[in-house]
Design brief:
Layout lengths: L5 H4 L21 H12 L4 H11 L12 H17 L11 E4 L1 H7 L8 E8 L4 E11 L15 H23 L6 E8 L7 H8 L8 E7 L15 E5 L6 H15 L2 E3 L17 H5 L5 E5 L18 H20 L18
Parallel strand pairs: 3-4, 3-5, 5-8, 6-7
Antiparallel strand pairs: 1-2, 2-4, 6-8
Bound molecules: zinc ion.
Length: about 350
């Protein structure tokens, strides 16, 4: 999650849609066969595996994963080696899992920092029936590095939690595919860099998409899902959802239905309000997709005392909740990827894309 800088943040107010969540029956999906399979593969997403990844990924060795710096290079190497080991291919072919994000691009938006070349990490499971339709699951791989005293910002929650959730979700989809139950639509696992510098990795991806934006069905973006905020102390079974109803009523209804069926987490929409003073809707990578009218959901646990602090460490993560929230993302992705019809962006604005 990016810290807000108000001067730079008041850009276009995209959404003026009213929140009208009809309880439309979910239709079209192959429910009899999919329901059990979704549950079967979701159970491979475990607190233990998430913890095992996160204690490495958010360790001091990764030096806070500052964009373009050696710690961030170790982070992308970790992700690449995971996908290679699991046999999950890159959409770029061969062993090239990196979408280069050049320094020249990064420094156009961040003045005076001399950012170095960086990269997004991409992995892919091809759909069995509609391979050209892409479900994106995203999280940012970078964090904010070290402070002037050399203390490391480990970023276990921000966004180690989202990063390792994607690894486990990818593994679940791969297992399904290996057993002949691969998703009908394709899934792109997108680990973006430069989020903390201004959502730059996702900006680069959406300006240079590997698959056409018009074929991108949704972006389910995970940024901070491993902690509990002040409001929910003592009641950790919650997650804030932001954006789910802003472009597609159907996506919102699927998300609600999957949660009701499988995970039973309290879905808190406080920050989804159009007048939310925190403007969280504009502050993580999903927004770069929403700008192009791609329906999104942003999964977020809210801020806490260690947000962008040196105390955001792996030992403070609530792994049971991380598991539960990651499974919710998986179930939602599974349904969106497998239902007969592509979800409709019924609230999409007819904006001039060129001006965005
Ligand atoms: Zn952050």
């Amino acid at each position: 999650m990016r810290k807000i800088f108000y001067a730079a943040s008041f850009i276009a107010l995209l959404s003026c849609s009213t929140t009208q969540n009809t309880t439309k029956k979910l239709g079209g999906s192959n429910e009899n066969t999919n329901v059990d399979l979704s549950l079967k593969y979701a159970t491979t997403i475990t607190a233990k595996d998430l913890g095992s990844h996160l204690f490495t990924y958010a360790s001091d060795e990764y030096e806070g994963r500052d964009t373009g710096e050696p710690g961030q290079k170790k982070a992308v190497a970790y992700l690449k080696s995971f996908y290679m080991k699991e046999g999950i291919p890159s959409p770029l072919g061969g062993d090239d899992y990196y979408q280069e994000v050049p320094a020249s691009f990064l420094n156009r938006f961040v003045r005076g920092k001399g950012l170095k070349d960086s990269e997004n990490v991409v992995a892919f499971i091809k759909g069995t029936e509609k391979p050209d339709e892409i479900v994106v699951i995203s999280a940012h791989l970078d964090h904010i590095g070290k402070n002037s005293n050399g203390e490391i910002y480990n970023g276990a929650d921000d966004d180690g939690s989202g990063t390792v959730a994607i690894l486990e979700i990818a593994q679940a989809f791969k297992k399904a595919a290996d057993e002949g139950n691969g998703p009908k639509r394709s899934i792109l696992f997108l680990h973006v860099t430069g989020e903390e510098k201004g959502l730059l990795g996702s900006k680069y991806y959406t300006q240079n998409p590997i698959f056409p934006i018009a074929n991108t069905v949704t972006d389910l973006n995970i940024d901070m899902i491993g902690r509990v905020d002040e409001k929910h102390k003592g009641n950790p079974n919650y997650i804030y959802l932001i954006g789910s109803d802003k472009l597609s009523t159907e996506l919102h209804n699927i998300s609600e239905a999957m949660n009701k069926k499988y995970t039973n987490i309290e879905l808190d929409y406080e920050y989804n309000a159009d007048d939310d003073p925190n403007r969280f809707y504009y502050r993580s990578d999903h927004y770069n997709f929403a700008k192009y009218d791609v329906p999104v959901i942003f999964y977020f646990n809210g801020t806490h005392e260690d947000y962008h602090g040196i105390g955001d460490t792996a030992d403070k993560i609530n792994y049971e909740m991380l598991q539960s929230r990651a499974r919710l993302v998986f179930h939602t992705a599974w349904e969106v990827a497998n239902r007969t019809e592509r979800i409709v962006a019924d609230k999409a604005q007819k904006n001039d894309k060129a001006s965005k």
